[in-house]
Design a protein that fits this description.
The chain is of the alpha/beta class. The protein is built from 14 helices and 17 strands. The longest helix has 22 residues. A hairpin with a 2-residue loop joins strand 1 and strand 2. Helix 13 crosses helix 14. The chain binds pyridoxal-5'-phosphate.
């Protein structure tokens, strides 16, 4: 191992603290943490010169590949003008343009207001607080409860975490945020008194952190109908599903659903910089018109960061110039084929969960004492040039949208070899 790699690992293990990371395993002598030093297209290189396909799109963020000249140039050009100026008390051209382009994805008179923040969690936090204050300012203060789905994930800030339904992450923090009822599906809504409910929050089409579990077709449209009939707001968390991941620009478009709040992050900047947006309607925004007593008191220092906005504008341009959405069906069909082949060759594959460019490969346990953890398989795949993660015993395969057929074959080939060794 190179001296500098050793030095970086030592400093990491002594001073670093990684998210969602069991620490005994991280610092165990047999574990070699990777130091990623470069990226190009779907590929990542570590400090030892080894190359990996980015099979997890750098935690579901990267869309057009790493180091895309067009996005790099947009960020560099923006740096030459200004890296950051406050969105509090002033605007800037890149925020104006990006807000208009995001609103332009939806029919006129629907999602026409855009509130920027930094991450998926803050996009959700904004929707929650806006919905709460909206009810206070529209004469329905009793509607403060939220409904979320079991095993859902919406981020880690306290409000977003209250919505989270993954017990192992969130149970210790229960009761600290807004009142939330968790239901398992549409049937669970029937037991609730809608008059006390502010909004329902859902990851549309597929729950990501819940091991890539896909909702039944039509469920989103049905939920929209239920919300309309009950006067309940609909918050769609498209932090993972947005920007082409499910095969359309936004997942909600597949069921012709327009929410009251749409939360976007991760892929918004092409996955290059932290940037998030919460889109909402004129009806919601109108409730905040008036004087200081009606304003939305929420914001972060880096809200609408110009570098992030420039990257996002360049990413949206690439969607057009690369004809990204047009090319997706071919890629999606190839993933279907490759993963069906993988499942047929390896009896350890229990189920393939699919939604557009998103795949979850669920594994059977290898023995009765198996902790149902796909980490070992991911480590084996890493030796064959694929970097990805497992959520419990489900291995995620979610490469950037620009992945070629050959690259997909490489990724599935690495899983094939890893499974053969397991
Ligand atoms: C559906 C969903 N919502 C929210 C988040 C939180 O986003 P962030 O990690 O950017 O705060 C995630 C992250 O994985 C997510 O998948």
């Amino acid at each position: 191992m190179r001296e500098e790699t050793k030095r970086w690992i030592e400093a990491d293990q002594r001073h670093g603290w990684h998210p969602f990371t069991p620490y005994d395993a991280w610092v165990a002598p047999e574990h070699e943490p990777l130091m990623i030093v470069r990226g190009e297209g779907v590929w990542l290189w570590d400090s030892e010169g080894r190359r990996y396909l980015d099979g997890n799109s750098s935690i579901w963020t990267n869309i057009h590949g790493h180091a895309r000249a067009e996005i790099n140039r947009a960020i560099i050009d923006q740096l030459g003008r200004i890296a950051h100026s406050s969105y509090l008390g002033a605007g800037h051209p890149w925020g104006s343009e990006l807000a208009a382009r995001l609103a332009g994805f939806f029919p006129r008179g629907t999602l026409e207001r855009v509130f920027f923040s930094d991450d998926g969690s803050t996009a959700v936090e904004v929707a929650l607080k806006m919905a709460m204050q909206f009810r206070m300012q529209t004469g329905e203060p009793q509607r403060q409860g939220f409904v979320a789905f079991e095993n859902g994930y919406h981020g880690d800030t306290l409000g977003a975490a209250s919505l989270g339904g993954v017990a192992r992450f969130f149970d210790r923090f229960r009761g600290l945020g807004p009142e939330v009822r968790h239901v398992s599906g549409m049937a669970g809504l029937a037991d609730l008194d809608p008059r006390t409910i502010n909004a329902v929050v859902i990851e549309p089409l597929i729950q990501g952190v819940n091991e890539m579990r896909v909702w039944p077709p039509g469920m989103l449209a049905e939920l929209r109908k239920w919300c309309d009939a009950s006067g309940v707001l609909l918050i769609l968390d498209e932090v993972m599903t947005g920007f082409g991941r499910t095969g359309t620009m936004f997942a909600c478009q597949q069921e012709d659903v327009i929410p009251d709040f749409l939360c976007l992050a991760k892929g918004l900047s092409g996955g290059y910089l932290p940037l998030a947006a919460t889109l909402t309607t004129a009806k919601v925004h109108d409730a905040f018109r008036g004087g200081a007593e009606r304003a939305f008191y929420y914001g972060h220092s880096f809200t609408a960061n110009p570098l992030g906005c420039a990257a996002a504008l360049a990413s949206l341009d690439l969607f057009e110039s690369d004809r990204v959405l047009e090319l997706l069906p071919g890629r999606i069909a190839r993933i279907d084929e490759l993963l069906a082949g993988l499942a047929s060759r390896h009896p350890r594959v229990a189920e393939i969960r699919r939604c557009g460019m998103i795949s979850g490969i669920a594994l059977y346990p290898v023995s009765a004492s198996d902790p149902r953890d796909g980490t070992a398989l991911c480590l084996a795949a890493r030796r064959h040039g694929l970097l990805t993660r497992a959520i419990r015993d489900t291995v995620v395969l979610m490469p950037p949208l620009c992945v070629t057929e050959e690259e997909l074959e490489h990724a599935v080939g690495a899983l094939d070899r890893a499974l053969a060794e397991s």
